[in-house]
Structure to design on (581 residues):
């Protein structure tokens, strides 16, 4: 880390955000700067607070799910999955295998779409405009698939308790196959533009370094944690929803800097593609929805159901009192917890690097504020 | 969708249920009741390494140890919570070095109203546990920020939403709601439509707040 030098000027405080394109939403960062060097950063959040946890205490189990789908709007498809899996476990609902497979397929496609959006905006923040256009080209293909299956591109309500809303439309499998066949060549294109690009290396290597021990202490999860070399992936460690049937690797970085987190996410996209390919090969036929009571009253109890979202461990702690509405639903948002580390990461760096570090944490304010 | 209420029905809990949806809902409710009897239940932990070690080191601290759907829950006394947490992180056989989450539950009718819920994960043992501690209304909870840095914002959120004070927290102030907001929204006696009307009038220049 660069030691801040004492300049003749006074330390001044500037606001970054809440309306700043590089903060990816409405995040306000109060920066204490000495010249160009950042001394301290304080995050002020809550501009998008909707009280999702309070709302869910006043809705029944079915009606809660769209609110969770909206928390992290970039990964809307996979977001409700954690809650749905938890409720299915508590109410002992069996999910047909076909529904499980389709869920995983859509979740992994969503992970690719989310990482593509991250790569596009992260590169744009740092100044690589072309990558943005390339990434959106592929993301568009995935959003078209979402539209065909869920009826919406961004604000989907993808999964239901017990399975799915409806089966795959005709031609869907072929469309996914076409995408997975083409995708590795596309990733090569991004890598040609960035991986050995000297400007990209200068802007990302050694920026926002965090060691494995410290990353654990700060509670990071997802790519920021794996970028520091900790192979923590909920899909592997506590498999859920059928992930134990598929082969994939958990990529890890070495140095824990912005560049390693970039490499981890690139590799994760390819691993997600690998899972989707396996699903296409052995997609079983059969029903897509299990038997679900019309009025759902899980027995009084509690369950912590965590999934590996694109941004890290997304947990739902569901407490039931035996009625139709949850007694309490706690969402453990991955980026709310990883954003805490921002102050630690930006100290001593330049203001321009703050943009890179906010980008590398891949925050979504809708999820942080809930 | 699967909904026991008509969507256009006003959300007024005081008004008596209109007679119409009742007969349709009844058979479904009866079916749901059957599933409750079959549902999972809490099982008391008997032979558990962690429980034995905790009882050895902190006699009387663990109030109950149960498992529900395979997830282990340890209810402990709030007085020993901090020392117990330090032990859980540092003891070489456990090493719960990753604090997954802190949250609270509000049981309005209980004498000790709040229940703090901690989820801990151990990378070494690949083990996830839940630690719970009951807490009275004006009783401060020990802050675990000195044990796990993750706790900083999580405790601030519990303070913001439930009004639980964490003694020893370096910067305990509201995080999601504005600093001058009154009331704690996730408490059970805070109605969903209740808002800090004065704050809204003051800051959003709304003349009349619609309720």
């Amino acid at each position: 880390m660069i030691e801040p030098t004492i300049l003749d000027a006074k330390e001044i405080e500037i606001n970054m955000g809440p309306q700043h394109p590089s903060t990816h939403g409405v995040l306000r960062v109060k920066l204490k700067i000495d010249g160009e060097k950042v001394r301290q950063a304080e995050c002020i959040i809550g501009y998008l607070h909707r009280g999702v946890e309070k709302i869910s205490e006043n809705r029944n189990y079915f009606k809660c799910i769209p609110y969770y789908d909206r928390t992290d709007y970039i990964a809307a498809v996979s977001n409700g999955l954690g809650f749905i899996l938890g409720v299915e476990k508590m109410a002992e609902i069996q999910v047909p295998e076909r529904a499980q497979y389709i869920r995983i397929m859509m979740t992994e496609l969503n992970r690719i779409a989310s990482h593509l959006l991250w790569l596009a905006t992260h590169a744009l923040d740092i100044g690589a405009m072309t990558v943005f256009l390339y990434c959106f080209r592929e993301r568009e293909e995935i959003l078209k698939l979402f539209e065909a299956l869920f009826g919406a591109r961004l604000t989907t309500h993808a999964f239901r308790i017990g399975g799915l809303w409806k089966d795959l439309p005709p031609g869907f499998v072929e469309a996914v196959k076409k995408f997975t066949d083409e995708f590795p060549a596309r990733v090569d294109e991004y890598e040609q533009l960035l991986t050995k690009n000297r400007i990209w290396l200068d802007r990302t290597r050694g920026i926002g370094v965090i060691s494995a021990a410290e990353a654990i202490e700060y509670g990071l999860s997802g790519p920021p944690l794996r970028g520091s070399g900790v192979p923590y992936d909920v899909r592997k460690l506590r498999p859920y929803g059928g992930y134990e049937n598929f082969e994939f690797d958990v990529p890890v970085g070495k140095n824990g800097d912005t560049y390693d987190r970039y490499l981890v996410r690139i590799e994760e996209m390819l691993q997600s593609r690998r899972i989707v390919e396996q699903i296409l090969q052995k997609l079983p036929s059969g029903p897509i929805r299990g038997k679900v009571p019309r009025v759902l009253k899980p027995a009084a109890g509690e369950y912590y159901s965590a999934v590996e979202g694109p941004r890290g461990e997304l947990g739902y702690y569901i407490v039931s009192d035996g009625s139709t509405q949850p007694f309490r639903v706690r969402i453990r948002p991955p980026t709310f917890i990883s954003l805490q580390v921002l102050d630690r990461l930006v100290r001593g760096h330049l203001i321009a690097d703050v943009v890179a570090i906010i980008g590398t944490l891949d925050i979504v304010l809708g999820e942080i504020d809930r | 969708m699967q909904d026991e209420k008509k969507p256009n029905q006003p959300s007024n809990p005081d008004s008596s249920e209109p007679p119409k949806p009742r007969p349709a809902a009844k058979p479904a409710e009866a079916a749901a009741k059957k599933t409750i009897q079959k549902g999972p239940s809490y099982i008391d932990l008997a032979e558990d390494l962690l429980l034995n070690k905790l009882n050895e080191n902190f006699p009387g601290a663990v109030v109950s140890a149960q498992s529900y759907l395979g997830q282990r829950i340890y209810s402990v006394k709030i007085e020993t919570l901090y020392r117990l947490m330090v032990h859980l992180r540092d003891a070489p056989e456990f090493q719960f070095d990753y604090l997954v989450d802190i949250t609270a539950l509000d049981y309005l009718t209980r004498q000790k109203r709040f229940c703090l819920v901690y989820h801990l994960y151990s990378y070494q043992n690949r083990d996830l546990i839940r630690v719970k501690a009951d807490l009275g209304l004006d009783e401060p909870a020990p802050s675990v920020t000195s044990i796990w840095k993750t706790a900083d914002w999580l405790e601030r959120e519990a303070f913001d939403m439930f009004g639980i004070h964490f003694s020893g927290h370096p910067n305990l102030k509201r995080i999601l709601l504005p600093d001058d907001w009154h009331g704690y929204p996730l408490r059970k006696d805070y109605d969903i439509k209740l808002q800090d009307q004065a704050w809204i009038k003051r800051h959003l220049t709304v003349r009349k707040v619609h309720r």
Observations:
- Chain A has one domain: 51-345.
